[in-house]
């Protein structure tokens, strides 16, 4: 690497007289609370903006939850209620309910007035009509 | 003052000792003011940034870890403050074309150390250099730091420091040669700002 002879070419300067006293006076001024500690104002500003940003994000999240998601929830409820009134809103609500038919039949088998309705369940069908 | 003495003084500053702090300021003040003057080409500004540097040394003393020399830490603070200032005043660093022409006529790079125009030309060439090249070049060629020490000061790998010094020197040399040939430095400054020279 080629060296550059900058040091002798550039004018050298020294600190102004009373430099230490000036620095010390400023340090005491800051310590007494008359002026802020350098570097802390910016850090405080950054912290404040970060806190503000997070607060805005949280507020947005809460607003979305309260106004948008809850509204959707209310729509879901009304469609659920509508099913009972014979209304169809194009919304399918799957209902899965396991029933033990063996027990159902057994439970009512002692009742003489029980009527059994038999329905064709096979796709192939039977040759004759089913009579009840 | 030996490094061990400086470390001991710094330990006292961490405890709020103002006398120890005054000794540290006295030890580094001339070097820091000169370094900042070479960076900013403005004595008043250099003095103000130097004051700011030492105030931070005092109030951030608890952040100092004696793994690196105290001087490197002080230079890091000074470099960062100077860089912030240069960024703030980037527009003010632009030298009017007419002024540059007059300065070039006043004296050019002839290799003579006594040439009064050389100092001016050098400062103009340094000013035209982007801070990323200016800082390592000044730390190496004016302050006499090693590449490893500069890497610790500017917190970059040694390879990066080496490349920046080499590139900065090339740009500086080109600027001085062009100034010697009487070329307009305005175009140069534009090239350097973009780091393309």
CATH topology of the largest domain in chain B: Arc Repressor Mutant, subunit A
Give the ordered list of helices and strands of chain A. HHH
Low-pLDDT runs of 5+ residues of chain B are 95-115, 184-197
How large is the radius of gyration of chain A? Answer: 43 Å
What is the radius of gyration of chain B?
Answer: 18 Å
In round numbers, the mean pLDDT of chain B is: 80
State the helical fraction of chain B: over 70%
> How many strands, what sense, and barrel or not for the largest sheet of chain A?
none
* Assembly state of the chains shown: heterodimer
What is the overall shape of chain B? elongated
The count of DSSP E runs of length 2 or more, i.e. the number of strands of chain B, is 0
The counted number of beta strands of chain A is 0
* Proportion of strand residues of chain A: under 5%
pLDDT below 50 for ≥5 consecutive residues: which ranges of chain A?
none
Classify the secondary structure makeup of chain B into a structural class: mainly alpha
Approximate strand percentage of chain B: under 5%
Cα shape of chain A: rod-shaped
Name the chain pair whose interface involves the most residues: A-B, 27 and 40 residues
Q: Give the end-to-end Cα distance of chain B, rounded to a whole number of Å.
A: 41 Å
Major sheet attributes of chain B: none
Taking the alpha carbons of the first and last residues of chain A, their distance comes to: 108 Å
